[in-house]
Structures are given as C-alpha cells and as structure tokens.
Amino acid sequence: MSDEHAHDEIDWKENGVKVIPGNQLDTNTPQTPGMNRAAAINFARVGAQKIWAGTVHIHANAKTGAHHHGALESVIYVLKGKARMRWGNHLEFVAEAGPGDFIFVPPYVPHQEINASSDETLECVLVRSDNEAVVVNLDIEPVEKPQQVRWVDPIHKHS
C-alpha cells in the first residue's frame, strides 16, 4: 500500500481533531505553590504523543516557588497581565513579558514566575515538549537584586 493510502482506513471521527472547551480543563496536574495549572492537551486527555498544553493563572502580587521541568522545553504565551520571570541557580536573572509575548524556558532551568501586577491576574497559555507534565519544585535562596536580561534576536540583530 502506498503512503498516500496508508491512512485511508483510520477512523478520523474518533482519531482526528479534538476541541477541548476552555471550561473543561483538568486541574489534576503537578502544581507549584503560587500558581494554578490546568491541562488541556496531554496523553490521557487526547492521546497526545509529543506535547502537553494548558493554562496557568497567577493571582495579583503572587509568585510561584522556584522549579524546573526536567528535560522538557516550555513555551509560555502571555494572554493577560504582566509576567516577571526570574531564573538561574539563585534566580539571579530577570525579564518581563506582557500580553502577546512568548517566553521560552529551556530544559532544567530553575525559574520562578511572578505576577508583576498588583491588581490583575496573570493569564498564560503553556506548551511543553512532552505529553505529560514534569514539575520539580526547588528550595532556592534567591538573590536580592536580580540582573535584568534583554533578549537579542540572534537572526535579526539590531545595529
């Protein structure tokens, strides 16, 4: 059978696109103090083989505990609010992101999410590079004043 016809026998109704209503996310997922994670896409819910996706909410003036996600890469998309990210062995680096911004967290990077707003919940969409959530909570003594880090696009460097 040619590759063109290899998928002709699949029941696409049962094994095709899945729409997960936003009000039916699963909060039974590993948590970090200071935030609420909810899974939309994972192996258990939709059969995802290579990704995990969901939401995260951090209340006004709140911050998470330090943590990392093992070998997983994470992408955070800020929907609403102002995110302040600290990272490093002593959370010694900091950067901020607002609505429409993406945040990339490489594997094993100790980090902390902070809601930089005093009156608005920080709402984000989260995607990870495996089908199950990995959360390793850490006991880190953070530096008092982290170093501000600004991203420079390595492909389109400004002069």
Model description:
The protein has a domain at 50-152: Sandwich (Jelly Rolls). It is mainly β. 5% of the residues lie in helices and 33% in strands. It contains 2 helices and 11 strands, in the order H-E-H-E-E-E-E-E-E-E-E-E-E. The radius of gyration is 18 Å and the shape is globular. The mean pLDDT is 91.
Largest beta-sheet characterization: 5 strands, antiparallel
**Radius of gyration based on Cα positions:** 18 Å
Name the quaternary structure: single chain
What's the average pLDDT?
A: 91
CATH topology heading of the domain at 50-152: Jelly Rolls
What percent strand? 25-35%
The first-level CATH class of the domain at 50-152 is given as: Mainly Beta
Ranges where pLDDT stays below 50 over 5 or more residues in a row are none
Terminal CA distance: 55 Å
Helix proportion range: under 10%
**Overall morphology:** globular
What secondary-structure arrangement, pairings included, does this model have?
Blueprint: H1 12-15, E1 36-41, H2 43-46, E2 52-58, E3 67-68, E4 74-80, E5 83-87, E6 93-97, E7 102-105, E8 111-115, E9 122-128, E10 136-137, E11 147-148
